[in-house]
Structures are given as structure tokens and as C-alpha cells.
Design goal:
232 residues; 6-stranded mixed sheet
Length: 232
């Protein structure tokens, strides 16, 4: 399994026959073999998770599938690409559902912001990509809102209690100050995961790495791996 961090929350996961692309909105992808199946995931429509660049994949690769949150619009006649997308190539998803497309299986969670998080079984690997499912605990928000964020996040992650993940992509956003590592700490304390890759830290990688010194994360330090972005 080869993982590439493109930018922000955008990643590729390359397996022997399968390529998974998550929340790619800008930057250059690795080159893939033409015989690989490509699955492009969009957790929601925010501009730092979805870009029109995804539709150009059809111009280069023969076997591309799109898995989109149900509220992401599929471009129509105005799409600036030579590719034409058969209906079967696009799967719209909603939270708390199981799906099969091509050779992979998918389960979805409900985001605490917009859209969904993805659980993906491909070949012999299990991958989790959170999208914007996070503890968005902002100090300026009301106590009621922040309490909802914490409770909702924990409820969603409890759905993963019986899973093992080979890789998990989870937000660690320094804008949340002391609450930046909340989601990672809770996830690793309640989900079996071999490797967790932080994401969604914008240009503040150094601040995100500083969270590794927090006592809550000390038991899991060997599992937390920062990957350099290929697009700066």
C-alpha cells in the first residue's frame, strides 16, 4: 500500500489493482497504471475538499468511478472536458449506508460539518477517511454547540468499534487551539488502527506536529504519521 498526501485532506492510496483518491481539489496526482481501477471520493462540496479537476481523470484513465456525497453536483453539459460520464460511473451516497461499486465496499458516517466520512474495503485493506467529521470545538461557539460537537463525534466513531483500519485519515486542525487533537485522541482510543495520518491542518504543519507532545497522544505516537504534501 502506497499513500501519497497531495494537499490538505487530499490523499491517494495505491494498491495492486486499485487506486483510491480522497478529497482531491488541487495539485498533481501520481501517475497510475492504465489497468488499475480508480475510485475518486468526495466527502462534501467545500472548496478545500472538492475540485472540478476530478472530472478530468476520465480523459486519462479508462476505469474511473466517482463516489460523491449526495449533495455534490455532477457537472452537466457545461463540463469542460472531453469525457462523458455514464450514469454507472457516479455513485451518490448518504450517511450510515453500505455500498458496493466495482470491486470495493463502502460504509459511510455522518459528518459533524457537511457530507460524509468513508470506510473503504479494497483488496485486503481497510481505509478510513474522515472528510470533515471532526470535533469542531470553537471557543467562541456556545457551550450547547460545542457539547453537541463532542457528543455527535463520539456517537459516529462508536459505529467503528468492530473495525480494524490499515490507515486512517483524521483532521488535526490547529485553528481549534487546544481542541485541535480532540478527534485524533478519541479515534485512537476507541478504534483499532495500524496507522493514522493527520490532515486538514492547512499551512500549520508545525503547529499540528506540536500536538504530538500532548499527554493524550503519547500512548499512540508510534501510530501517528505525518506525510509531507506533494503540493505546496
Amino acid at each position: 500500500m502506497k499513500i501519497t498526501h497531495i494537499k490538505h485532506s487530499g490523499f491517494t492510496v495505491e494498491l495492486e489493482k486499485t487506486v483510491l483518491i480522497f478529497d482531491w481539489y488541487t495539485g498533481k496526482l501520481p501517475e497510475f497504471r492504465p489497468d488499475q481501477e480508480i475510485y475518486c471520493f468526495v466527502s462534501h462540496s467545500h472548496g478545500d475538499h472538492y475540485g472540478s479537476c476530478i472530472w478530468r481523470l476520465r480523459e486519462q484513465y479508462p476505469d474511473v468511478h466517482y463516489i460523491l456525497d449526495r449533495n455534490v453536483r455532477v457537472p452537466g453539459a457545461g463540463l469542460k472536458t472531453k469525457a462523458r460520464l455514464p450514469r454507472a460511473d457516479v455513485l451518490k451516497v448518504r450517511p450510515h449506508k453500505n455500498y458496493e461499486i466495482g470491486s470495493i465496499r463502502i460504509y459511510t458516517l455522518l459528518s459533524t460539518d457537511q457530507g460524509v466520512a468513508f470506510v473503504v474495503a479494497a483488496e485486503d485493506k481497510s481505509i478510513y477517511h474522515a472528510g470533515d467529521l471532526n470535533v469542531w470545538y470553537w471557543e467562541e461557539d456556545s457551550e450547547k454547540e460545542n457539547k453537541w460537537q463532542v457528543g455527535m463525534y463520539r456517537k459516529e466513531i462508536s459505529r467503528l468499534a468492530d473495525y480494524h483500519f490499515d490507515a486512517a485519515f483524521v483532521p488535526m486542525d490547529p485553528r481549534l487551539e487546544s481542541h485541535g487533537p480532540d478527534a485524533v485522541a478519541w479515534f485512537l482510543g476507541h478504534v483499532d488502527c495500524r496507522q493514522l495520518i493527520p490532515m486538514h491542518y492547512w499551512s500549520q504543519e508545525a503547529d499540528a506536529r506540536a500536538y504530538l507532545e500532548e499527554p493524550r497522544l503519547q500512548p499512540y505516537r508510534e501510530k501517528i504519521v505525518f506525510l509531507p504534501e506533494t503540493t505546496r
